[in-house]
Amino acid sequence: MAGKQPGADDEPRLPDDIWERFQQDSLGRIDETAPKEHSARWYEVTERLAAEDARRRTAPRPPRRMRRPRPRMPQAPVPRAFAVGFVVVSVVLVLSAAAAYLQYGRVF
């Protein structure tokens, strides 16, 4: 009796197959049935967004005549062909001026 621990024989022993089934059932279903709780950060962000939304809804809006109109885009943007033509003409003009300077020593 000196080597026995107190309470070792007091507990009934479960058969191994029942204990294994208990472990599999418990571990397998814990993730499925456990409630998922949000983090504290989620609660803080939700409260802050709700407060901002409430503040935005109750904030007075200026009258329509005092609001500044949005800047408008040009009605007809410059066609790409005009832009490409401008670049080509500019390059030709610069090259012809450089050729005239190299050949005659002056541009005009």
TrEMBL record:
Keywords: Membrane, Transmembrane, Transmembrane helix. Residues 52-75 are annotated as: Disordered. Residues 57-71 have a biased composition (Basic residues). The chain crosses the membrane at residues 81-102. This is DUF3040 domain-containing protein. It comes from Streptomyces synnematoformans.
